[in-house]
Amino acid sequence: MLLFEIKDQTKWRHASLNNLSVSYSSFTADAEFSPYPFGLSLDQQQQLEPTGIFGGTIVGNFIGTELSATLNTPSGPQGTNGQLTVGCVETDAPSKSDHCFTWPQFKEWVSSLPLANCPLIFRGHEKAEYRLRTSLHRAGRRDLIRYVQEDLPILNGYVSGVTGRTYRLKDFDDYNNLLSLAQHHGYPTPLLDWTESPYIAAYFALRGTASTDNGNCRIYAFDTAAYRCNVGADEGALEDPHLNLYAIRAASRDHDRALAQQSVLMLSNVAEIEALIVKAEKQTCKRYLTKIDLVKSNARAALDDLRMMGITEASIFPGLDGICRALRDRFFTTAHENA
User: Fold this and answer.
1) Within 93-166, where are the H helices?
2) Count of domains for the chain
3) Of the chain's two ends, which shows fewer C-beta atoms within 10 Å, N or C?
4) Are residues 194 and 76 in the same domain?
5) What are the CB-based long-range contacts (under 8 Å, 24+) for 173-177?
6) Tell me, what's the pLDDT at 40?
7) pLDDT at residue 242, rounded to an integer
8) Residue 24: what are its φ and ψ, rounded to 5°?
9) Is residue 132 a part of any domain in this protein?
10) Cα(303)–Cα(286) distance, integer angstroms
11) pTM (2 decimals)?
């Protein structure tokens, strides 16, 4: 949990919730505010109040999709006592698509996009039900400050030992290089992989489909340029209490997949990325995210079509593994379907 000053979000305090007890729609917990890494200055008595660890209790209720609670910290700053409300509770419910296309219809939609300086980035999901959520949040982790202060230095030590490179976590480029490399090797990160190519996104959505599969897969298209212009997106915002996401071109210094996949990385400190974007759309009266479902019955023809475009396992996963999977997909259809 984070508390921060709305007018000055550089002043905030991090708390962990312990001894959580839940009964129906009510809950109670002990709140312990840690020394990470900034203090609050919410009242004139700040200099007389503790600057280290302090604690208290939190009691609340879930009402629909809203959480309402009372925080009481007898030994803490005056500003840490009072009511708090969280307006959106996480959900696994699938979001509704904007379009449902066959493969020919999807290609027609892509052909309508500008060839040069296309503002969209794309992401493919093998199941339309999957929401936009980072691997870190899917792993159940929400404590981003602990992630930065404790987990990343440990990861950095191991990765540096294997690669022979030293990653300076306070350097923006090194920080993103480390996260990008870890993401592509299965380590949970607050990153989502996107691509500048709608067809590469379609490949990721369709690649695991068997000829007997029914239902839909999904492709997301996000107008990152318009979002940055109208909403704002600050780089390096992972530890910032302000809810945020931003996209950058993936670094390819330490792995060759980023360039092959035309990769773009979205870093988010929010579990409910779609909800954040929807809220921004309502506030600005503009659309940034388009959700397209692809009919899986077209998958075999679509994958053959993508192979003719040069999009295969071998092209997007350079190396022996990618080559073998590409040949398997081309010549051993049943193996592909049972993978």
Assistant:
1) 103-111, 135-138, 144-146, 152-163
2) 2
3) C
4) no
5) 173/251, 175/236, 176/248, 176/251, 176/265, 176/267, 177/251, 177/253, 177/254
6) 42
7) 65
8) 55, -115
9) yes
10) 33
11) 0.75
What's the pLDDT at 46? 41
> How far does Cα 50 stand from its chain's mean position?
35
Is residue 92 in a domain? no
CA gap 141, 135 in Å, rounded:
9
Looking at the DSSP assignment, which residues form a beta bridge with residue 291? 220
pLDDT in the model for residue 107: 95
Whether 94 is covered by a domain: the verdict is no
Query: What is the extent of the structural domain holding 48?
Result: 2-86
The rounded average pLDDT for each run of 10 residues, N- to C-terminus, in the chain (339 residues) is: 58 74 89 60 42 78 82 75 74 89 95 87 92 88 80 90 84 82 85 90 85 83 90 64 70 60 80 88 93 90 89 73 67 52
Do 129 and 162 sit in the same domain of this protein?
yes
Q: Is the dihedral of CA 32, 14, 266, 164 positive or negative?
A: negative
CA distance 155 to 165: 13
Residues 132 and 221 in one domain: yes
Q: Are residues 71 and 201 in the same domain?
A: no
Please name the residue that has the structure tokens 């997301």: 220
d(CA 210, CA 112): 29
Identify the pLDDT of residue 3. 63
Tokens of 43: 């009242």
Do residue 31 and residue 123 come from a single domain? no
Distances (CA, A) of 172 to 228, 235, 236, 255, 269: 18, 9, 7, 18, 16
Q: Kindly state the helix (H) or strand (E) to which residue 60 belongs, with its residue range.
A: strand 54-63
Query: Per DSSP, which regions of 148-306 are E strands?
Result: 191-195, 216-223, 245-249, 263-268, 289-295
Q: Are residues 188 and 258 in the same domain?
A: yes
Q: Are residues 78 and 213 in the same domain?
A: no
Q: How many CB atoms lie within 10 A of CB 267?
A: 23
Q: Strand, coil or helix: what is 109?
A: helix
β-partners of residue 100 are 293
Hey, what amino acid is at 158? Y
Show the tokens assigned to 94. 């699938």
